[in-house]
Design goal:
The chain contains 27 helices and 24 strands. By secondary structure, it is of the alpha+beta class. The longest helix is centred in the last third of the chain and has 49 residues.
Length: about 850
Amino acid sequence: MTGIKKIPFKVSARTARLIGRENIATAKGAIIELVKNGYDADSPISIVFFDNYYSNLQNEISENFFEELQVKGIDKDLLLDVYEHDSESYKLKNKLDDNLIKKLKHRLSQLASLYIIDAGEGMTQDIIRDNWMTIGTDNKAHNFFTKTGRVKAGAKGIGRFALDKLGSKAEMLTFFNPENHEIDVDEDNIPTSYIGYRWEVNWEDFEGEFKTIEKVGAQLTGIQNSSLSGYLENILPSYIFSKIPDITTFKYGTILKITDLRDYWENYYVEQVYSDLEVLVPPRESNEFSIYLYSSLTPDSYGEVLGSLCDDFDYKIIAKADDKQNVSIKVIRNEYDVASIPIEFFSRDAMQKEPYTRADFLKGAWKTTKTFSQLLPGYKEVDRDRTFNDIGLFEFTFYYMKKTYTTPDAERFFYKSVSANARKDWLQKFGGIKLFRDNFRVRPYGEIKDVAFDWLGLGNRKAASPAGVAKKDGRYRVEPENVAGAIKISRLTNVNFEDKSSREGLQENKTFQIFKELIAAIINIFESDRSYIAREMNDYDDVRFSDIRSRQEAEQIAKRILEQSREKKILSLNSKTTNTNSDSNTTDDLKDKQLAIIAELNEKKDEEIERLKEEQKVLRGLASSGIVLASFSHDLSKLNSRLESRLEKLKKLISERINENDYKDMENRKNPFYLMQNMREQDVKLKSWLAFSLGAARKDKRKRKQLFLKKYFSDFKVDWSSVLNDRGVELDISNIEDLDMRVFEIDFDSIFNNLLVNTIDAFNSSGNDQRFITIAVSSTPKEIIIDYSDNGPGLSKDIDKPEKIFEPLFTTKRNPHSGEEEGTGLGMWLVKSIVEENDGNTKLLYPEQGFSIRITFPVKYKR
């Protein structure tokens, strides 16, 4: 070789099609991209005009329209193949060939034109050549601001290829404002006298084999005498001039005209574009940028595109994040008819604390501030990339609107009356949580009927926890079809949110994943508030309208009726006297039979409840085993299909041929005997794990019997010894008082297995060199006390209310990459619910280091 040559890349001309027609997902999206260009050009206005009067296939046309179509170039024979003359008009034939319809539709669509007009700063020849004609220009990526201070919506430098998505031919007329530009010069840097330019391109020129993009060009012609408004008079119908203020004063700006349209723009599709533009820009007070849409086919149907405003909602959240990772949150309640809520409801203990007092309800709103870490407790400890720092400022407005409710619910929860149909219509049009960047919507997030409508995964949250709003456990999750909202970000403050090249959404990087988790956590503040109130109102309703005796009294009455009924049956069989047939006796007998039937049903119901309780205990034990197995699935996966006996046999066979001493000085990784010993130790672990997991649901554990606590905790330590030794954890059970209790052993397994699993997980994330767990048991004349403590990192400092750990589904175990919850959130809930079912109490203790909890049982369980 004589030398090294640099060979330049060549770009095929069909690249234009790849990044235009095939890269931009929909025609609607292409129109929105071009509207954004007008915004970035500092235009106060954008006009989208469909000149589609002649381009739609109609069921009936007049004779004049028939002739006009011919003047426009539609072959008369083709028209007569589709239409037949009827009196003074032409009507579609009854039986038509689909190919003929398709052919005529194609010819009609070629009569349509699409105009996108702005009154911005226009483009000089230099800008057209260096920016408009440069694919992927980084002009907007570096020059964030327009001359008036707007943050530019575009960044990829491919927006102009949206023209190819819409039609095969494009023409641009642009008139530049000389005050906002340097002197206009040509390609030889010689000043020109032009005030604007006509730019034309045929996208079909990019087709063909072996064409490279530098050999395909657009035509550019200078314009010397005219203005934007002068051309608009020849393009737009006169009625538009009366509807758009100051349109005749526009001297500068750009007109984009697309012809040979690729889509058939009948009224249905124009309506879709209008709806999309309505949610393109979020609702705001300023009107710095107005959008208008018109169609020559239906001139009275459209007009200014007005953003959606929601004033009929049940709940609203306004959240604003600052640059210090603090989120100020305002929760606005509009669901309840406060005037109809009785005063005594607010005297309940649960309604004495903020923000649930009557004063809070009368205010209609309450505020709080949360840090990112408090919204996603536990994530900061596992996030090595410090992703919170990359999220930046954002604003989030959230609306909840139930579409329907029953009359009993309205009375029980004191709902305001709402118009169900109006809400359904509004949500059908504006529902979903939209994402906006610098005042422009990032599609397709929150788009109705799109797969990205529920991009936050609210539907999955609801499916995982389908509880009603008044559920005691508080696991209510909102339905995605009942919410709307807007999230505002900026290219300046959210620099890690990058567009996809298709302009359809943002890149799914780690920062965006954690951001979505934060938004879901803010929504959970609303869910918790609504659920808390609903539970209290439900309980209040039960007390208010309950005229039944206490359950204990009802049970006594049922038993008495059942005993009397059975005594009567015995007396009736033994009696030899003939009963009289008086009406009174017949009536009394009927009442007695009815009461007896009710009492028997009550007795069967009690038996069924007891059986279900027994099943529940088994399920708890299995749930605990599942939590344990899930937590250590990594360990078990390594030990799969390895048996202790197999290793012994293998070692014996090898020893007959190979002397173990030959490998005495060999490094471990090359020593088969060392490797076999290592495998044997793994088998021992697997064996103990299997014994432990299979023993968790043993039948004898489901029977209430005397449980000797010294023996129980000694066995407990043996069961866990392999795991504890593996992780360098010392379990101290030296302070166990010699007590025995009459309890279900499976309940104790569920309590202490869950506590131990949580501790081991905490140790794994803390890196403590010395790891201790202590279980101590003592008693007083009134209660049995069990103290469980460890020297781990303790509860996450991000948990604002420590008692939250007992709520179902609450967890601080999170995936370090996505921020998603990994724990089941059931462990501590199981601990508390099992203790309370046995008439006990749980109390969190707060040592200087680590985690500590006290569990007490009444002395009646002591033998």
